[in-house]
Amino acid sequence: MKQPILFMIVGLPGSGKTTQAKEIESEQKALRFTPDEWITALYGNDVDRPHRDAVRDPVELFQWQVAKRALTLGCNVVLDWGFWAREERTKYRKEAETLGAQVKIIFLDAAIEELWSRISARPESSKGTLHITREELEQWAKMFEPPTNEELN
Questions:
Q1: Does the pTM of the predicted model rise above 0.85?
Q2: The domain that contains 45 carries what CATH number?
Q3: How many distinct structural domains can be found in the chain?
Q4: pLDDT tens profile 73-119
Q5: Are 72 and 99 in contact (CB under 8 A)?
Q6: Over the range 3-38, which residues count as b (16 or more CB within 10 Å of their CB) and which as e?
């Protein structure tokens, strides 16, 4: 059995994470997990920020349980989660490696103006995409910890 790969997509909203995740899903025959798609499927496009934030962790936890099983079965997995914190990336890397998986971090970087331009251009009805304000994006950019060169190798 070939060694499965966990692809962790790192970046802020508007950086192209889901587009990249879909490409990897197709090219690498990987099981893709995009939380916003699950949240909108379960709760609709009109879910408010407090509800969305309350359900994100349980959705990601469930996705990770399924992802771990897929990795143990030899299936490649793409986590389209953003992974803003170094500590979070380290945790998932270690768990995946314990399961025998190789880990690849894909970092998508763009300037805040480019991110906002892309987010603003999204159709309101965009399936699997939740509404984001400029203020939220700027706040999140301050919290984001870009991956180190060591993490990317």
A1: yes
A2: 3.40.50.300
A3: 1
A4: 999 999 999 999 999 999 999 999 999 999 999 999 998 999 988 88
A5: yes
A6: ebbbbbbbbbbbbbbbebbeebbeebebbbbbbbbb
